[in-house]
Amino acid sequence: MIKVNELLKRYKAGELSFCGENLTGINLAHADLIGINLQESDLHSATFVLAYLNRAKLTKANLMATRLGGVNLSQADLVRANLRDADLHGAILQGADLRSADLTLANLLDANLIDADLRNTNLSGANLTGACLRGANLREENRKYAANLRGATLRKADLRGANLTGADLARVDLRGANLSEATLRGADLSGADLTEATLKATTLTEANLERAVLRGANLMNARLERTNLTEADLASVNLQGANLADAKLIRSHLAKANLTLARLNRADLSRANLWGATLRDAHLIEAYLARAILTNADLTNANLMRAEMSSANLTEAILTGATLPDGRIHQ
């Protein structure tokens, strides 16, 4: 096993390759090791707090339970690295390659993961509270190659523009997270908590949001075509201008939701609760509203052409200027 002083001396002399070395428990806090090659090395329980590991090669390295708080791993190669239980609090991983890495239960509180490649990364149970994942790539590939974020905490995380196509985000804590303009096409968000999250212009086409909580979330101009929102909690949500064509909203809770200018053509809103919702200028052509609650809803100038609403509750609903199912304009 190489001693700290020996490793630093050899590195300073220009040696970069330390592949396959046993460095268990080594303390390299604050060390300047830019570009070092530690591929397949055993770094279990090592300390790299505030170290410089920019562009380091750590492919298949064992970093289990390693202390990496504040470390700079920008553009580092961590493909298939084992980072289970690692402490990466405040770490800089901007542009890092973490494909197929294991970050189960890792602490990534306030970490910088801007433009990081996280395809097929296991982030189950990881703490990503306050982490910045702007432009990060977590997309699914070939249906068998997807990031796993089950049980992860992404509260107040910055995921603007991130690619989460097909990602597994079931039951994930995304309260207050910013997912503006992110791509979540086909993602599994069943049971996820997106309370007061920002999803402006986010792509959620064909995503699974069954029983997800989106209370107070901002989904203005979001794309939700063919999305499953069965029994989702969408109370007071902002869906202004959103596209929900062919979406499943069966038994969803949309009380006081803002659906102004929303497109709900052919959407299934059977038994949905739209009490006090605003649907001004909304498109509900051929929408299915069997036993939907529209009490006190504002449907001013809405288009309900060929909509099925014979059993809907329209008590005190405002229908001024609305196009009714039979094509008549309500006076």
Q: Your description of this structure?
A:
The chain has 331 residues and is largely without helices or strands. The protein has 1 helix and no strands. The longest helix is centred in the first third of the chain and has 9 residues, at 4-12. It is rod-shaped and about 85 Å long. The model has no long low-confidence stretch (mean pLDDT 96).
> Mind summarizing the main beta sheet?
none
- Tally the helices: what do you get? 1
Tell me the distance between the termini. Answer: 86 Å
Ranges where pLDDT stays below 50 over 5 or more residues in a row are none
Tell me the Rg in angstroms: 25 Å
Kindly name the structural category.
little secondary structure
**String of helices and strands:** H
Shape estimate: rod-shaped
Got a strand count? 0
Helix content: under 10%
Strand content: under 5%
Mean pLDDT metric: 96
